[in-house]
Predict the structure.
Amino acid sequence: MTTVNLAWQTRLAALPSLPIAHLPTPLEALPRLRMALGGDAGGVPHLWVKRDDAIGLAVGGNKVRKLAYLLADAQARGARKVVSFGGLQSNFLRALASGCARLGMEAHCLYFERRPARLTGNLLLCQQLGARLHFVPLGGDTGPRDLHRTCQLVRLASPFLPGIGRRGVAFIPVGGHSALGCAGYVPAAREILEQAAQTGFQPDAVVTAAGTGGTLAGLLAGFRLLGSQVQLIGIDVGKLWRDFEQDIAAMAGDVTTLLGAPQPFAPTDVTLFPGYGPGYARPYEPALAAIALAARAEGLLLDPVYSGKAMAGLIDLIRTGQFTADQHVVFLHTGGWPSLFATLGPL
Ligand SMILES: Cc1ncc(COP(=O)(O)O)c(C=O)c1O
């Protein structure tokens, strides 16, 4: 690993961040999953899981790394209330709710859907964590699809919602999708490389789910700044954002600029398996099969919307011969299992 420039590390270390994550998260081997997929004979690479599902702050997940910076920033600007939005089973809003509870701030969560008769999964956890839930039915699953315009809309509309107003309010974009939030995945890139080196291997690829693409952008920036050649592969869970690769490349560039070491990224630098499954949060049989396989082979809980689809994508890549048996592939587990309690019956 060659380091491009060290000044960015100082800049990163100087960013205000809250100690809400248990770091480093574990990097564990998945030997039984590898065997279940065919092992050496099947040309299956050595499989590893980076356990960001076990990162702490209630039930963990990738958003905790972003919130460590975003909530520190909100606090520094004197905010007492934090507003954001997402789907009914948003893991981000649940992580935001736990972070705000921990810091004595008010979380206001907006959903572009009707209030369900029964709160389940992440939505139930948000309520238990004391978040204020605002339901604004604007077309549900077929609602606004442009990330930046939706953020603007929420910014404009939220002061009029009960209990929000204009004073002491911080707005955090959906999924923590800002350069500051995505910078949370730069140290994760370093963790992966360091833990792999300590364990005695060099990762050939890292595979993870892409929702807003922020996790991918942060990792892309991190691996570039560290001079790593690891192949980063995102599995698009089907949110249908426009110009997704371009957006992720631009965000990776913004992250490096924030860290004082601007790097150019082109859409072709982003490896994305597009629109995995029939659409965002739609039941997808291979994802359900991947969830059952990971649960039974390794005691690992994935979710049907993000990490289950990412695992199904990884299995597809393995089955189509994209890797060799001597390679090492790290699956970044981004969490999300509370939605199992809302979306699945018995596997
Ligand atoms: C469990 C889980 N995994 C992955 C993602 C995708 O992360 P990102 O939005 O950074 O692409 C999300 C949220 O969108 C998530 O909740």
Summary: The radius of gyration is 19 Å.
